[in-house]
Amino acid sequence: MDEFKDKVAIVTGGASGIGRELCRQLGGHGAVVVVADINRQGSEETASSITGSGGRARAALLDVTDAGEVLKLIRDTAGEYGRLDYMFNNAGIAVGGDARDMDWDLWRRVLDINLMGVIHGSRAAYSVMVEQGFGHIVNTASGAGLFPIANSTPYVTTKHGVVGLSRSLRAEGADLGVKVSVVCPAMVDTPIFEDATYPNLDREKFLANIPRFLLNDVKDAVKAILRGVSRNQGIIIDSRYGRFMWWTYRYLPALTRLGNRFAARDTRKRFRHNREDNGQQAE
Ligand code: NAD
User: Where are the alpha helices (DSSP H) in 199-282?
Assistant: First the structure.
């Protein structure tokens, strides 16, 4: 991983989870890391943990939904260090539940952070990188960007968008010196599940039902991600489980359909109850 030494990287969502670990491992490999997040305290803690162990990092307050802020951070960073080697567009939030319970505010919030946030970072970094003739954009999507997942429709929509954006930009940037990868983790042990919005769901029950044995350790996930980045893989999947899920969707789609039917069982139950209630009212 010597290729990260002395390189300049911006990581959005660097205050927590995958982003925080990306910052720490990049810092450990000798990169200069800009830890960008809407959570000021969290990003300062990440940056201090890197500088405290001899690395180079600084925190930057950033809301990825603000295109102007994102552009400014990218231009300022490239100006200050004379280059921008890596742009990790990683910030994101999760939502889960019946599509009927996702109101417009929630749809817009998820689209703004997970999709527009990545577009803002990709667009601004791409221009800077094309101009300098090198650079690598690494966008965090999800397994949810590669196959359908019931009861997570807005999240899945944004992640499919991030995969499409990244794969297209990769094709476009290849001859201009700009690499683009998309990261599609399956399930990683981070605070994202606790912090997610679950409209009309029993939150505790939902969290208790997460199959914890499928959660990849965040350190292992990030090691796999950085290995994929160093090999310039187009699609980076962090775990065997993630690769299995993607393989299943492509070659045994009936299994994915079965899994989704299982995931949507409460939604079907609610649909049947509503119909029965309506039937009783009509009688
Ligand atoms: P996390 O909740 O631990 O970290 C997300 C970070 O994004 C937080 O620090 C948060 O403050 C930041 N953030 C949220 N809104 C922001 C905004 N408007 N501007 C700037 N920063 C903002 O979650 P995580 O699990 O580390 O997720 C990181 C990425 O990985 C997300 O894009 C997520 O969708 C994706 N992902 C996670 C998993 C998983 O199982 N954990 C699986 C697949 C994909």
Answer: 203-208, 218-230, 240-251, 253-263, 265-282
Please choose from 192, 195, 197, 212 the residue to mutate so as to test ligand 1's pocket, defined by most ligand atoms within 8 A of CB: 192
Please report where in the chains the tokens 């997610």 appear, as a residue: 196
What's the predicted TM-score (pTM) here? 0.95
Q: Among candidates 73, 17, 7, which has minimal Cα distance to 219?
A: 17
Angular region, 67: left φ>0, alpha ψ -120 to 50, beta rest: alpha
Tell me the CA end-to-end span of the chain in Å, nearest whole number. 70
Render pLDDT for 109-168 as a digit per residue (tens, 0 to 9).
999 999 999 999 999 999 999 999 999 999 999 999 999 999 999 999 999 999 999 999
> Which structure tokens are listed for 103?
């109101």
Distance CA 13, CA 20 (A): 7
Active site residues: 155
Residues 230, 1 contacting (CB under 8 angstroms):
yes
**Two tokens, residue 96:** 């889960």
